[in-house]
Amino acid sequence: GAPAGTRGISLFAVPKRRPTGDGGLVDNDVDVTGMIHKIGWKGLPSLALSFGERGDCVGWLVGEPNRGLAHMFQMMNEARLMVGLNGVATAAVAYHESLAYARERPQGRPLEDRDPTSPPVPIIEHADVRRMLLRQKAIVDGGMTLVMTAAMQADLAAHGASEEERARAQRLLDLLTPIVKSFPAEAGFESNVLAVQIHGGYGYSSEYLPEAWLRDQKLNSIHEGTTGIQSIDLLGRRAMAGEGAAIATLVEAVADTIERARHAEVDDGLCASLEQAVEELAGLTAELGAIGAGGDVERMLRHSVDYLDLFSVVVVAWQHLLRAAAATESSSLDETFRDGVLRTTRYWFATELPRVTLLAERIRGGEDSFATMDPSSF
């Protein structure tokens, strides 16, 4: 008698053993029928289960009937943040492993050294290896700060001093959740790829751990909703929430960081670049919202993954500028650490932020080759 489709889903707790009236436990007719052999996450097995094969399985309704999907998403949103944290951790451990390896592994000589008798130098002395390490660092530092920012908003949404503060934090958390879920997984995978590359011939062997972390990371772009699902959720629902209130809250938060960075005398060129990028994001969001409101939802969401990519670049740039402001303000910070923060910020702004304009042009252009291609033509 439940409604058809997802509107009829109810949520149940079905234990392997169920309680008896006298305080004991009996078998609840739940069996493991097989283990799913995955590309990664070997330490957390995925199992196939059967329920009630012997006709003696009992489940308990959780929440209201036919509201199971809505109830599940109370868990799902937190789970998405946890997947993002796992993505950052998996990228970070690979970065630290490749950094340690690059400092110890001797190979080759500096390009200007023509003496064949010169001893080899650690591979971190080679510019291309430092390029890969800096990209890993930019992904890890930006992703970690993003996760911490979301965690802070979650705390404020629950425990803020006023209703207004709690509502503002919730809007920002809702908006950031798809980014926290997807950026560490997608960009983090690139960090893991670079770790394998820096290890060279050892990288693809099981003698070193980067190849296992690379496989683990791939699952994070699939767990709790694929990247494509996150992009539709972001553009189709979260970015449009409250008639633009969510985006306005983000713009305000970024503006606060820009003001803080300027006060700390961070390079004003970085501040101006982020101002321009967030204006581009807000304007593009309004344009896409108008297209959707006009009835062309397919056109609105056609490049949702590109929109997610653009959004991620801007939000992570915001996080790097936040780091740069904090590092510049501190008088007690180790100078090499401060230099690392500022160089990483400049790297992200120089290599990633220019992509915002290109992505916006692609989204506005509505290139439709994949959308209109007949399935038989593949």
Sheet with most strands: strand arrangement:
1-6
Largest sheet: 2 strands, antiparallel
Determine the N-to-C terminus distance.
Answer: 41 Å
User: How many β-strand stretches?
Assistant: 6
CA-atom Rg in angstroms: 24 Å
**Overall average pLDDT:** 95
Helix content: 55-70%
**Overall 3D shape:** globular
Report on the architecture of this protein.
There is one protein chain. The chain has 378 residues and is mainly alpha-helical. The chain is built from twelve helices and six strands. The strands form three sheets. Strands 1-6 form a two-stranded antiparallel ribbon. Strands 2-3 form a two-stranded antiparallel sheet. Helix 2 (127-159) runs antiparallel to helix 3 (163-199) and helix 3 (163-199) crosses helix 9. The longest helix is centred in the first third of the chain and has 37 residues, at 68-104. 35% of the residues are buried. The model has no long low-confidence stretch (mean pLDDT 95).
Throw out a few tags for this protein.
two-stranded antiparallel sheet; single chain; about 375 residues; mainly alpha; 6 strands; about 5% strand
Indicate the topology.
Blueprint lengths: L10 E3 L3 E3 L5 E3 L2 E7 L9 E6 L8 E3 L5 H37 L22 H33 L3 H37 L10 H11 L6 H12 L6 H19 L4 H26 L3 H5 L2 H26 L5 H17 L3 H11 L3 H4 L6
